[in-house]
Each structure stands twice: as structure tokens, then as C-alpha cells.
Known about the structure:
This protein has a single domain, classed as Aminopeptidase (3-Layer(aba) Sandwich), CATH 3.40.630.30. The protein is of the alpha+beta class. The protein is built from 4 helices and 6 strands. The longest helix has 15 residues, at 76-90. Coenzyme A (COA) binds next to strand 3, helix 3, strand 4 and helix 4. The site of coenzyme A has 22 residues, from strand 3, helix 3, strand 4 and helix 4.
Amino acid sequence: MKDKEVNKWFGGSLNLKEEKKFIKKTNKSKEKMLFGIELPETKKIIGIVSLIDMDYKNKQAGLLSWLGNKYWRKGFSFEAKRIVLNYAFNKLKLHRLHAEVDERNTASMKLLEKVGFKKEGIKRDAIFKNGKYYDETIFGLLKKDFKK
Ligand SMILES: CC(C)(COP(=O)(O)OP(=O)(O)OC[C@H]1O[C@@H](n2cnc3c(N)ncnc32)[C@H](O)[C@@H]1OP(=O)(O)O)[C@@H](O)C(=O)NCCC(=O)NCCS
């Protein structure tokens, strides 16, 4: 993913070879599921939504996503997240989804709230970046609160 604006919120930048390897590995694993966001006109993958840390025993998983910055603020992530949430709750029969977000990432927090997540708490100084600590906000969504 060669998008500086997106990589700001992720650990590091992968090159194409590493990225392909990552996607292959992810989709083999039982702990993660990766869904591409495809632009219908070009059939190009412009972002992803992923279910991570799948915990089948407790019926829960983490949710994360990114989208190429050219495509921001068009409603793509909102639509894609709702499709994956519907799949997670109604096909995989999960009970709860969670997401952890850097306190400075307003876009991501607003998006989570728009799809129905509630703020559950703060992990203080959970992120160390460029010599500074930042809080991480924990969000959760229960199946009963997800409006189809
Ligand atoms: C967060 C991200 C996925 C949002 O994608 P997007 O497709 O632009 O979001 P949408 O257009 O679907 O917006 C849905 C809602 O999210 C919120 N939102 C999105 N971008 C926002 C921004 N820059 N500032 C404030 N709110 C924002 C708004 O509530 C918006 O609803 P509205 O348009 O009715 O106001 C995208 O900005 C991104 O990839 N960021 C970098 C990676 C990242 O932070 N991922 C999350 C890590 S957990």
C-alpha cells in the first residue's frame, strides 16, 4: 500500500511483493478475513475491510479498514463496512465486533460511530510513534445494536 495518508495510521508500508504475500497469508488463516473494496467501473481494488483476531469461542472479532485517499468522503467505507458487518453478524453469527483507533484518527472514529459502534474506553499511551505516546480508543458493536 503506497499511500502516505493511509500508512499514517498503520504500522509500516508494505511493498507490492510483501502486500501480495500478506493478502495470501491472511486469507489462508482462520484468524483473519480480508475483503477488497472494488470500484465497479474499473474493477480495481481501492481499499479493504478486514475481520481480524477472529475469536470463534467468544463469537467476536476485530474490524479494520483502509481506502486509498483519492476515494475518501464518497461513502465507500461506510457501505463496505456495513456489508462486512452484516456478514459477520448474520452469516458468521458473531456476537460482538471491536476496533481500536489512534486518538488522532477522527475520520476512523466518526466512521465507526456512523455504522453503530459505541466508544467503550481508552487504552492510555498504547501507541508509541515518533518518540511520543498516544491513547487508543476502544469501540465495540453488539449484534443486537446493528441495524440492517
Ligand atoms: C477512515 C477511512 C476508512 C474513511 O473512509 P471513507 O470512505 O472516506 O469514509 P466514508 O466516505 O464512508 O464516510 C463515512 C463517515 O465517516 C466519517 N468520516 C470519514 N472521513 C472523515 C473525516 N476526514 N473527518 C471526519 N469524519 C469523517 C463521517 O462521519 C462520514 O459520514 P458523512 O460523510 O455522512 O459525514 C479512510 O479515511 C481511511 O482509509 N483512512 C486511513 C486508514 C485508517 O485510518 N483506517 C482505520 C484504521 S482502524
